[in-house]
Amino acid sequence: MYSISEMKPFEKKLMMGNFAFARGIIESGASFAAGYPGTPSSEIIETLAQNSSKTGMYVEWSINEKTALETAAAASFANQRSVCVMKQNGVNVASDFLLHLSYSGTRKGLILIVCDDPGALSSVNEGESRHFAKMLEIPLLEPSDFQEAKDIVKEAFELSEKLKSIVMIRSVTRLSHASGIVEANEILKQKNPPYFHHSGFILDPETGPVMSTPVTYRHQLMVKRMEECRSFFKNSSLNRYFGPDNPELLIITSSVDFLYSMEAVKELNLEKKAGVLKLVLTNPLPEELINEYFLKTDSILFTEQVLPFIEEGVKNIYADNFKLDKKIKFYGKKSGHIPNTGETDTNIIINALSKIFGIEYSNSDEEYDKKVIETAFSNVTPGREMTFCPGCPHRASYFHLNNAIKLDSKDGFICGDIGCYTLGMLPSGYSTLKTIHSMGSGTGIASGFGVLKKYGFDQTVLSVCGDSTFFHSGIAPLINAVHNKSRLTMVILDNSGTAMTGFQPHPGEKNTACGINGTPVMIEEITKACGAKTHILDPFNYKKCQEKIPEIIAQDNVNVIILRHPCALSPQRKNKKYFEIEIDYEKCVGDNCGCFNFCTKIFKCPALFLNPSTKKPEIDKTLCAGCGFCADICYHNAIIKKAADNE
Amino acid sequence: MNTILEQYESSKDVILNNYCSGCGACINTCPYRKLNKNSAVIIFECSENHGRCDMVCPAVKTDHENLQKKIFKSLSPNPMGNIIKIYKSRAGTRFQPNLTEKKTVTALNCFILNSGISKKILMTKTGRDFLPEPFFAETEEEIINSGKTIHSTSPILSVLNLSGEKSYSFTGLPCQILSLAKTEVLEKKYLKPFLPDIKISLFCTWALYPQQYSDYLQTKLENNDLKACQITSGKDKKIIFEFMDNSKKQENLDEIKKFIRKSCTVCTDLTGEYSDISVGDLETDNSFNTLIIRTVKGLELVKKAVEKNYLEIFPYPKEAQLMLETASTNKKKKIFS
Amino acid sequence: MNKNSNKNIIITGVGGQGNVTLARLIGESVINDNKYITIGETFGASQRGGSVMSHLRIGNSKIYSPVIPLKKADLIIGLEPVETLRVLITYGNKDIISVSNSKPIIPSNVLSGEVQYPQKETLHQKINYLSKVAIVENFTELGIKYGHHLLSNSIISGVVSGLKIIKGFDQNNFTNTIKKYYSGKTLEKNIAAFLKGVKMTEIY
């Protein structure tokens, strides 16, 4: 879609933050990129992959974040600029390797771009990655707008090469998934023949082996490295200040909070009273710069996303400053002016500033407010719970799994993890999902439940994971379950791709990120080799699933069921219907189908709704994906499917 | 007559407390439920407080006074319910010499088919692994061959709506007959299945959980196929297994009593009080049945069946009637004590 | 409501309705006429039936946040009527203009019977009540008339263009942008749909 590699210098484009990062990577002449998909990070690798035929860059969707970082590190060791991209949860996965990498150091520039998701807009936690940088003692950069997102990449590569260390860039959803106008720069040519020098002296950073030992020696280097980093940034133009020379209130901020803070100051007409100090290097914090600002103001407000990272860092610097003989009042998350949870925005900062300055902020109109309140209380905006798309194979899969669990009558449940199928916790998945944690955890937890049979535990235990998740971290817990003779059924919801994040390929498929032929690794071959009895079913094969799945889950061992059908939005299915669906109103018994229309009330496909006046279901043809499953579940054979004619 | 022995207000409570009789009536009316091992299971939760599943469930509290008035237009003082006539009976000469036993029900059902009253008979037959299953018999041969007693219940009512059968008669147990009566009096706005032309009830003191009983029977087989099993009458009851090679084996009845459905322990209806005709053993003479006629429809049927030599009837022995009344009363009493 | 000529536009709807694409299309169309453009996207529920909003900010004075503050929208483009109303309640003000598709997409808790979906007339009336100018039409039906229900978004684009709220959002710029996405018959149909939309605003 975006041929960002073809942009000329000074050409401007409306660009998503993630495209800006991708362009920055291309401009820096990187030759290697690896990552694992996860909102809001996926578009970076995806865009690099789409442009790879023009840039010649090697781009890889790796099996998981740890492996992605390992492959990217290898490129750095072999003298290639290289980048690794993941969402915040990915850093947890990669952190084991990261710690060692921090000790061993890198060679050619290596950058880790992490996209956090404050407010968990599309995550199951709002974990924050910045503390990793602190723990691992590596530099951390936080760009604050779209242009900076692109430009920072080059700076990061240079910093990495100076320090011989991986450099972390932290983005957030509102930067990665928002767009602004970005001006392109030249593309650097970096042509280094890949070669790994390893025969030199053990302590030689250029030619020696790359390892974390001798540990204390290397750790000393890391401490020194952070000092060097601080000095590089002493006069950096990236950390910028906007406002009066001696502000009544200094706002110290980073990332998108810079944008919110600027807008809030403008909105409240506080330009002459409040100043904004935008930090880009947030680990290590620019101590000298901050000490200078302590002299210019008496009160400081911290605006940042999720944890009080800058706030605590600056307070540490304040505590260490023996020369300062005045008291500064701090506002932020600790003082309650900025919330500790969820994402921040302009309104939150407006509220904080109003409180601090004692201003009454009102942008409302009394008459209009009255109308709004009246409307809001008239029950005209029913909530909109997330649900599986029309034609989604997961809706069918959960229909079968719920059926099997209930028939089994042993108060069974499903342990799950992250993917579209997390919606199994909601009514559209019949609320069957009862534990949700990190990738692959469902099977690990199920394995633990299953061995409790020793103490008389008799509930039926299932786990679900997606096809991509299976490769990412589903294999180890399966082996654990088989080896320890646990009792569970692992259900792999194989919809042929990493659907939730936009159909990135995974190791089970023929294509790699760059569209070249890869070697598909078959899920069923792995599960069989793990020693689990493996059953492959199509969730849209109603009869077979209804018959087989209850039989399988009742068994006293480890079974794997692969429920395989491509996602309704996948390229092979999108805008193609299997069936045209009609309703035979002579046969439909409406409200007599149970006490409510079974198909609309229970199956809850968005394309099948109840007409309140006729009390009978109708098909919304503009939404229906033609999967035909509703015809299978109708007890009165009143929903009719006819093979669709797809031109 | 005394009523209300069932404690539950909703069929969901019936299911959750394991008092499901496995009749299949709620399955027939609602796709939110399914059968598993011949008991109803709730697959999808529902928010209706008093749904049609509750209205047709035989184990949900029944207002018998009201129901009797609606079905029979009057209340009966008899512990066996409404009775027009009571006879001792057996299959008529028409079946000689093929039918050697009493076989009143078989005879009546054959007559219903052959005289064109109904096209099919909905009854229970033994399926795979001695598991009972609902079955529409269409020929005399099918009726005779399926007449094997297996002492466990089938979810016979679950097939009513789906089969869409219009012309059929029904043979089943008192709980199933009760559910049909409840279905018959449902308000007009509810979708009702076609109801049977004639309802014949078998006497029933208890029935067994099919799966558990089936598992038990499997252990008795020893490479032999089971032909039939019978419970002896009189005191010190035994169960006799008859195998395909005509060999027999007997066990103390207590052996199988542990498989009695929980719902049977609270059932108050020995004879099927809402039937057209009820048939059971005759305690005083094992070569005859007891035949209770409750409705005019039932009376007409018996008359014609006798005329056409399908059935033989004789006056009912006084002492037998007393015994049956006592047994019926006891079944009701047992629940209260 | 704005202190300057910048425009705050919210495109709202349900996942899968082409919300994000529409925002991008408008943004890209006017890139030569405006110094600043930002788009803030809510991606999470974009394909899973949840509410989805895109915030589009366009103008020639400096724009900071890609997220529009509460009560600060100038125009709401609603692809679904309940969503239009939801956004009016949080981002509306006395000068707001709304263009809304009246075709409902039923939420799953309405399907399950927990809550009711409001009557068509009620929705219409409430949207009018909270907008200075409200255009509510079944654009889906119109789209079907023009060949495909998905043409509804091009008709809506035409209506927005006709209202002349966004500087530079005219037929020429729209055509140049949509050319990057479609060609041949589909392109022609989209342009025709756009013109139909422009025509609909002649009465305003």
Give a verbal description of the structure.
The complex is a heterotrimer of chains A (647), B (337) and C (204). Chain A is an alpha/beta fold and 647 residues long. In chain A, 35% of the residues lie in helices and 18% in strands. Chain A is built from 21 helices and 24 strands. Chain A has a 7-stranded mixed sheet. Chain A has a 6-stranded parallel sheet with strand order 16-15-17-18-20-19, sandwiched between helices. In chain A, strands 9-11-10-13-14 form a 5-stranded mixed sheet, sandwiched between helices. In chain A, helix 19 links the parallel strand 19 and strand 20. The model of chain A has no long low-confidence stretch (mean pLDDT 94). Chain B has 337 residues and is α+β, with helices and mostly antiparallel strands. Chain B is built from 12 helices and 13 strands. In chain B, a hairpin with a 4-residue loop joins strand 9 and strand 10. Chain B starts with 10 loop residues before the first helix and ends with a helix. In chain B, 46% of the residues are buried. With 204 residues, chain C is α/β, with parallel strands linked by helices. Chain C has a 6-stranded mixed sheet with strand order 2-3-1-4-5-6, sandwiched between helices. In chain C, helix 1 packs across helix 7 and helix 6 crosses helix 8. Chain C is globular and about 50 Å long. Strand 8 of chain A pairs antiparallel with strand 2 of chain C, so a sheet runs across the interface.
In sequence order, what are the helices and strands of chain B, one letter per element?
HHEEHHEHEEHHEHEHEEEHEEHEH
Backbone CA Rg of chain A: 28 Å
DSSP summary, beta strand count of chain A: 24
Strand order of the largest sheet of chain A: 3-2-4-5-7-6-12
Quick one: overall form of chain A?
globular
Portion in strands of chain B: 15-25%
Strand order of the largest sheet of chain B: 5-4-6-7-11-12-3-13
Q: What oligomeric state do these chains adopt?
A: heterotrimer
